[in-house]
UniProtKB/TrEMBL annotation:
Example of a GO biological process term: endoplasmic reticulum to Golgi vesicle-mediated transport
Family: Belongs to the GPI inositol-deacylase family.
Bilayer topology: Multi-pass membrane protein
Domain GPI inositol-deacylase PGAP1-like alpha/beta: 108-352
Protein name in UniProt: GPI inositol-deacylase
Entry keywords, A to Z: Endoplasmic reticulum, Hydrolase, Membrane, Protein transport, Transmembrane, Transmembrane helix, Transport
Primary localization class, coarse: endoplasmic reticulum
Pfam families reported for this sequence: PGAP1, PGAP1_2nd, PGAP1_TMD
Xref: InterPro entries: AB_hydrolase_fold, PGAP1-ab_dom-like, PGAP1/BST1, PGAP1_TMD
Key word Amino-acid biosynthesis present: no
One annotated Gene Ontology cellular component of this protein: endoplasmic reticulum membrane
Amino acid sequence: MAGEVAASTNATSISTAARFNPSKSVQRHHSSHHRNSLTITVVVFSALAIASILYSFLTRQLDSKGCREIWLAPSYARISSFDSTHTRFASKYGLYLYREQGYDRLEPNGVPVLFIPGNAGSYRQVRGLAAEAAHQYYDTVTAKGSYGDGGARNLDFFTADFNEDFTAFHGRTLLDQAEYLNDAIAFILSLYKTSSYSHRSSSDFPLPRSVILIGHSMGGIVARTMLTLPNYQPDSVNTILTLSTPHVVPPATFDWDIVRIYDRINRYWRDSYSEKLVGRNPLASVALVSIAGGKLDLIVPSDYASITSLVPSSNGFTVFTSTMPNVWTGADHLAIVWCDQCRKAIVKSLLDIVDVREPTQTKFLSTRLQIFKDIFLTGLESSTQRRAPFSLVHDTLLKVQDVRSIFVDSGRRVVLRGLGKSRQPKAYLIPIPRDGGREDFFSILTDQKLEIDGKDQRVDILLCEQPQENLDTDHGAFSTVIDISKPDTRSISFPCTNSAADKVVIPASAKGTLHPYDGNTFSYIQYRLGEIARYDYIALVDSYTTSSPGFVFAEVVNNQTYRYEIEPSFIRLLGSRSQLRLPPVRSGFVEISARTAFGALVSYKLQVKPHNCDGQPELFGPLVRQFITDPNESKFFPDASEVDISFYGSSPFVPLTYRPGVNNNLKLQMWIDPTCERPQDVHLSVDIIGSFGSLVMRYRTACAALPLVITAIVLLIQFNIYDSEGVFVSFGSALEIFIRRALPILMLVSTIFIIILSYLMPASTLPFLEPEDQLSVNGPSTGPVYRYIRYNNMFLGLSDPQMSFLGPLFFTIASGMCIAVYYTVVTILLFVANSAEWFQNLDLTRRRTRSRLLSYFWVENQRERLYVNNNGIAAGAKAIFAGACSTITAFYFSVLSGSRRLLTTFILLISVLAYVPYQFAFVVGFIVHINTCIKALRIQTSMRSQNGQFNMNFSNFAISILMLMIWVLPINIPVLIVWVHNLSVRWNTAFSSHHNLLSIMPIVLLVERMITGKMIPRMTGRFQIITKILLIYLIIYACLHGILNAYWLHYIVNIFSFWLFIVYLDLGADRVMFGMNLRNCFDGKFDKRP
């Protein structure tokens, strides 16, 4: 039945021509089959593409879930004194204080921390972090005294109950939460001034003047918004941690307020670090750290968590949970707040930055940032500051016997298989080469834990100078003395610095290791020779006195021989894989740079071929680290043989930030056992199917924007035919014309446009400077460099011309979606129409009336077939037919009187103005228009039973408008959900936004006009030109900005609806329902002569 409706207009013209020109009929029959086959091809291709994307998203390139579960004893104390005298949102929101049972006392007595839940989040999500904070402080800090600087204190976790508000959908709600939390901070700080709450152990410590903020999801945006509002108390916030927060791009762009708020706060944060505000920067002391969960987060794309374009590296950074030492796993959107490994690292960092001796309750900004980097980053970053090489004092004295065998030849690697074999401590002194390049480095890898204050049986890595005489060892000059000399032999003493402070903990890799978070770890140390030029030896001390399993591997790595590059382009990698063969004699540490791999939309497969070592056991299995430098994303793959590679590099719609000479492409670091002198093959190829899944998270909004483009083009085709021929073809027929003629052009234009944008995207200098990351011998360089930003916020947000094929792909998918939705909608509408017709036929009176009305059409059709020559009779037939049309229209539509329609419309619009959002009126209009389409189809099917070639202009027009509204509906639903949610929590205060009558009145008026069943008149001249201009504007805007600014699509459709309403009024809307030229009602014409 849906197919009949879609092809009805063509059926009329083909049937008429068939009686006079059979050959032309056959030709059109073949043409129709060709169009149908082309349409089916597009639908099948779209279905396969969508299925492949979803299959890839759900099954390919998935990170393993390694978060451990937790057990808690939570309790929540509502602070009822924070009432309407302190905030106007007291009746809607609530403030709680978390207390861990058995640890925390009821009153707050520590450092205040405020947890902000995200979109539809619960205040109870704080329990994972708060409970861990209590356990770490009371079990570790208090019991063991591990924080000896005197500034340590427990954390008081406050949390806000937002009744699970939808902040991602509604900007006004986000602002309300930010305003409420600023009021809450003022109240929280006042608690510590009240004697009943002041239980701090020493009155010498200043009272808190700031609060640490932790925001989950949209809670992070709320936290950043707080600092921009008028009721924010200056310096009341100086540390913000965000978890899975979309900082740069709103996750849903259906609300104008959300987009505006994002633009405003991001501009505020960027401008605050501008050179013009140096010394007056309101955010100068604020540290912002963004933690992302990676591919397991299926709610917020982790690309959006990057803050590189918002703050300089001196004030914050972005890190992934897979990067954090001893975490090494991704986290989904909810798990990131309770993941055991992740919360331990977060809480440790918070306890480390606390210093209650300061009014801010935290250490200075630079110290805070360094603590965060030490805990959250791998330590393998080029910007990592080494401690031991720049230590001003020696902490370890090494005394060894004067035996030349302990010295290792310069340039020779040291391999210890098994420890304590000599049953006594032993040292190995490796001379630091003086003829090597300053960028060459010394690399040490061991499966032993390197600790400064560990047990006696351990491995130590020391940086030592030349031996000296008369070293003072009796007055505490050295904190540690390692004496492995024999009493009866001459000994020599080396002043040394223990390098354990510079160790990097990486996952252990052995045969059968599946995941990096399985538990065991390696210790890795790396020094550039330029950094340790002041020292003469690197000492490896094996202090074990019994034989123990383990290994130590140390070598000097040449800067020119450990780096490799993979050059093939993305296009070449599509058809084949890139192979790299590592030589038999090589270093144990290798770095591979894939210079063409920098886009987040492409996933790869890495294969590390195993080698045969002739039965010799390997020291460790191949360990691979994939990483990019900005943001700080790393993944480790132990015992690597075949690895899925996906990363968050250059991402759609995320501003591209870079510094001159810095390449943010994919890099691979590999630790491979070099003692097995066999070639090692490494293969890298594109995972085509696995790459499809990356499109889902980035282009969810495109499911509404791009089909709207296709719908607007189809409407343009329909109006062109209608205005020229008087026939408003069906949406399906016009869609076939679009696929045959316009779709290839659209695909070509989109391809060219993406290529042009990738080279011509606007670039500007960010308003802040920062030092280079490169380390010199004397420490970090302080030379400022400019950071640049490129905006890729148009169309698909692509910056890589090699991704230009995505334009044609998305437009083809959008065409298939339009076809599928159209036929689905028509089928449902016809089913409802036929069902209603069947039920009404049970009423004998209505059935007889309908039969008498339809007899008019049958009689006039027979008269026309007799070719009546009398003009008077022909004119009479026309009059009878027109009367029949008007009568049957009234019979089916049962239109309300004009005054009653006006009253209903007026009540709806007044409701929008007073209380309900205009999205509610849109949904009401959408439902009413569905009813209009059903009635039009009922008339259409009734008349087709009398004459198979009856014109169906109005029903085609009504369904086309319905298709337009279908793609706008998802843009309006989210705000409506927020309004309904507010009703459910008994928050009856009207929205302060979304009450603009002009945002919905044209759509309501157009729907009201179409209730009468009257067809829009044909247009000529300026009316026709304006209609085309509006549709072309909708097409262009939806293409360029529809994904990032979906809310504006509603406004454009609203403007277009206003224009159609004007056309109804100005061009005479009193035509009968089908608006056809009566000469075209039947196969022939009334005035045709035989």
